[in-house]
Amino acid sequence: MPPRVQPKTYILPLKTHKLTAYLTAGIGDTINSVKQKALSALTTEVLDTPNPHAAMGMPVDDEPEWTVPKISGLQDFELSRGIKERGRITGRYELLDSSTTVKSVLVNWDTLFVQFRDENGDLLPVKVSLPPLDDDEEAELAAARKGKRKAHPET
């Protein structure tokens, strides 16, 4: 079977706090152009609209610490990618240089994370809520069955 051809346009999930936006980038684009798309996504009016699920009585997490900070320009944040070990994100992040091309530092579907700057211009740590990778029900079921074999009749 011939090797799979890489796409000319990457889909890149952008995560911060409890927000995920999907950006597209050509393989020849620079990280700076991806950052401009991220700025557009982070300054959209949709982020200011009230949550429609609050009126339905659904639990809504409106804690201020999970609110996406307001930004006005490219200088207010940086893009980074998660450092992975054995295919899993470790909780450490690597800043992406704005002048490099997408193809040289990312692959299709690589997740980008936002690091905001504080009032002094210092980078804040990445704040993101990631969904669990395993299904809790399956883990509980497997744990309940562990070691439960039929006892042999004693003779």
Give a verbal description of the structure.
The protein is an alpha+beta fold and 155 residues long. The chain has one domain (9-145): Phosphatidylinositol 3-kinase Catalytic Subunit, Chain A, domain 1 (Ubiquitin-like (UB roll), Roll). It has three helices and five strands, in the order ββαββαβα. A five-stranded mixed sheet has the order 2-1-5-3-4, covered by helices on one side. The mean pLDDT is 83.
Question: What is the global morphology?
Answer: extended
The order of strands across the largest sheet is: 2-1-5-3-4
User: Largest sheet, if any?
Assistant: 5 strands, mixed
From the helix content, strand content and strand pairing, which structural class follows? alpha+beta
Strand content: 15-25%
CA-atom Rg in angstroms:
21 Å
Mean pLDDT value? 83
Q: What order do the helices and strands follow?
A: EEHEEHEH
CATH homologous superfamily designation: Phosphatidylinositol 3-kinase Catalytic Subunit, Chain A, domain 1
CATH topology: Ubiquitin-like (UB roll)
Number of strands: 5
Low-confidence stretches: none
Count of runs of 4 or more consecutive helical residues: 3
The appropriate CATH architecture is Roll
Q: What kind of oligomer do you see? A: single chain
Helix content: 10-25%
Report the end-to-end length measured between terminal Cα atoms.
Answer: 59 Å
